[in-house]
Amino acid sequence: MRRANLVVGGVLIAVIVSMAAVGLFWTPFSPTAISGPRLAPPGWPHVLGTDGQGSDTASRIISGAKLALLVGVMSVSAAALIGVPVGIIAGMSHRWVAAILSRGADILYGFPALLLAILFAAAVGGSTWTAVAAIGIATIPVFVRIARAATMQVMSQTFVEAARLSATPPLQVAWRHVLPNIAPVLGVQVSVSFGLAILAEAGLSYLGLGSGSDVPTWGRMLREAQNELFNAPLVALWPGLAIAMATMGFNLLGDGLRDLLDPKLREIA
Amino acid sequence: MNGSLMATQGAEVTYRRSGRPFVALHDVTFRLAPGERVGVVGGSGSGKTTLARLLLGLIRPSAGTVSFRGQRVDGLPERLLGDLRAGASMVFQDPNSSLNPRMEVGDIISEPLRSPRLRRRGDLPEVSPEAVRAALESVGLDPATTSRFPHQLSGGQRQRVAIARALVSDPEALVADEPVSALDVSVRAQVLNLLSDAVTERGLALVFISHDLAVVRHLCERVVVMQQGRVVEEGAVDDVFADPRHPYTRQLLEATLSI
Amino acid sequence: MNRLEVTDLTVAFGRRRTVAVDRLSFTLGQHERLGIIGQSGSGKSVTGLAMIGLLPENAHVSGSILLNGRELVGAPERELRPLRGDEVSMIFQEPMTALDPTMRVGRQIGEVVALHHRDRRGGIHDEVLDWLGRVGMTDPERVARSFPDELSGGQRQRALVAMALANEPGLVICDEPTTALDVIVQRQILDLLDEQLQGRASLFVSHDLAVVRQVCDRVLVMLQGRVVESGKIDDIIEDPQHPYTRGLVAAARIGNHPRGTRLPTMTDFTEGGRA
């Protein structure tokens, strides 16, 4: 099936999103309270068992979904809201402005999210917001690059010349001609970056550079599970699975969208 | 230059292609009088499209001058070209790339009317569904076309939209760059009739660029023959075609097929 | 035996089975040149592609195409591949998309030759130069060394002609080969084709009657997937029967109308030709 990527990715993401949505209102137990014996195996009432403290694993996974999506949405939105306009300006401008903006983005590109997170954590202490900031800033250059490349391609089209002949102001050209035509490409990037953001957040909280200890995140759950790996390996499985599903879901969706965008063999009518 | 609507004097356009200079236009002097119809013919590489872009202020000459209504326009920044933008329009060759695929036809046609710089001229019609409907009717398209997208139209219909867009700002000159070359032969006549009627009704000056001599003869009074960036011959269409002086003109005439 | 015998060929696309070619039948003699004329959407290009088995995956083909007596409809790809280049070849409209921009022209032509004659390893380069000379290149060595974007439109099209003829196929399908060229180069390429297609059969697809007339003896007029008229080209031009054909002939005769008069349009003759 040609649309396999799209479908599988969509399903995986739907599962994660549903979990998070449910988690807004209800979790089987409180994710942070001790509600059962330590390291209980999956059964009833703890469907996925309990962790090293005795908290319900399923509730913690659901809670983690909320956070993962929150971090994803905030960091990718921020990155896109900053990166896309910069990229469009770079794509529409003459050489030296574009050069300055591109070099700026490239410099930023050199700072991986991890480094930024460490810097922020050292400065103000690690939290969900420092994670969002670090990941967001690290994602800006990607959007600048993609937006710039797509903009340049649009600018070479004749209809942009026609807009110039209509004396359309540059802002209008960006808003009505460039943006609608680069939107599909940006959409693909949003999906891909979302997956990367979730992965990055998991990594940061695994290292203790993200959310505080009272906020259950998948990364933190992995860290805690490490200690109990020989006693109860299952405890590591669930957060790992959740991270994998979320990341893969967004990646596949991005791939599926990219395939959709490719000029297909159009039906010769 | 006096009395000319559009003109170039000794214009030269040089591009840099991988380090080496490429002369697209060399010492080209061209005049267009109000209401006049001039054909510009030549093969590929003759510079005719470069001339069109020069006349419309889309590119700068590396030497020589370009003027509109007697005022120099070469080298002026975009914000001072209001007169030129309002007074001259262009129809491009490729109906596929000259219309924004993500814009509705109605918005495409009315775009010139939304430009603040053009509106400063004062006599532009307001942006309204009526104005768009009138524009569509004038090119023989159904009013329902307003909400369609370019990919839903045929090549001939897209060119009609392009013509409607070019005419909506009520220009005095129209530059048509091979407007029917990308269309099927069977469809060209409709678009050519449309162009001809529009030009006659509005008393427009027309620069018609083509490598199809039969069409040029049908539409234009004067012809300019270009080869490799130079003007090699010009004059009244019937004279030039009946008695071509330059070997390139003769070559063009011989190559023209007819049945 | 006829070069091509097509019987009730029907090509439909996609799930909705949009019909592009509707029960088309014709024959092509061993050395005959047949033009197929029609506007976009008439099915002419699809017909050309069907003859060489290059239809897209979502095409549903029924009917029969006999190429030198061999059935093409329903034949698997591994049977069709050896035919291409050797028995039937195609010259496309856009040289820039038919040529690989990253490969030198000489090598591309050489690959076509090598495909069918692996034993001739040594002589391939000479053969390539020979062909480039035959298609009218003044400096075959330089052209062979060049990349496609270093050549002019006319040179690229000549290279395509060389590639199509290199293995001496009996049938050459030309799909609007001069549409993207200016009038002088078009004339040169048509003269070249006229010369090089001697002794071969050819199917010439175009929307331009004047172009078809340069190369073909007989012509099929297609409208919405069907043949509406067929016959010798001069007869058709002189005395067109079907309204659509009359419209085509009139459209090709712009020169006959004085300045300022209205040109006859396709809708004057038929409803099927709205722009």
UniProtKB/TrEMBL annotation, chain A:
CDD domains attached to this UniProt entry: TM_PBP2 (cd06261)
Residue stretches making up the ABC transmembrane type-1 domain: 65-254
Bilayer disposition of the protein: Multi-pass membrane protein
Primary localisation category: membrane
InterPro entries: BP-dependent_transpt_permease, MetI-like, MetI-like_sf
Transmembrane segments: 7-29, 67-92, 104-123, 129-147, 229-254
Keyword Plastid: no
One GO CC term on file: plasma membrane
Domain of life: Bacteria
Entry's Gene Ontology BP terms: transmembrane transport
Alphabetized UniProt keyword annotations: Cell membrane, Membrane, Transmembrane, Transmembrane helix, Transport
UniProt KW Transmembrane keyword: yes
Protein location: Cell membrane
Family: Belongs to the binding-protein-dependent transport system permease family.
Protein name: ABC transporter permease
Automatic annotation (TrEMBL), chain C:
Entry-linked InterPro entries: AAA+_ATPase, ABC_Ni/Peptide_Import, ABC_transporter-like_ATP-bd, ABC_transporter-like_CS, Oligopep_ABC_C, P-loop_NTPase
Keyword Acetylation carried by entry: no
Positions of the ABC transporter domain: 4-249
Keyword annotations of the record: ATP-binding, Cell membrane, Membrane, Nucleotide-binding, Transport
SMART domains per UniProt: AAA
Membership in a protein family: Belongs to the ABC transporter superfamily.
Gene Ontology MF terms: ATP binding; ATP hydrolysis activity
Membrane topology designation: Peripheral membrane protein
Name of the molecule in the record: ABC transporter ATP-binding protein
UniProt-annotated location(s): Cell membrane
GO biological processes: peptide transport
Pfam families reported for this sequence: ABC_tran, oligo_HPY
Upper classification of the organism: Bacteria, Bacillati, Actinomycetota, Actinomycetes, Propionibacteriales
Family matches, as CDD domains: ABC_NikE_OppD_transporters
Gene Ontology CC, one term: plasma membrane
Location (main, coarse): membrane
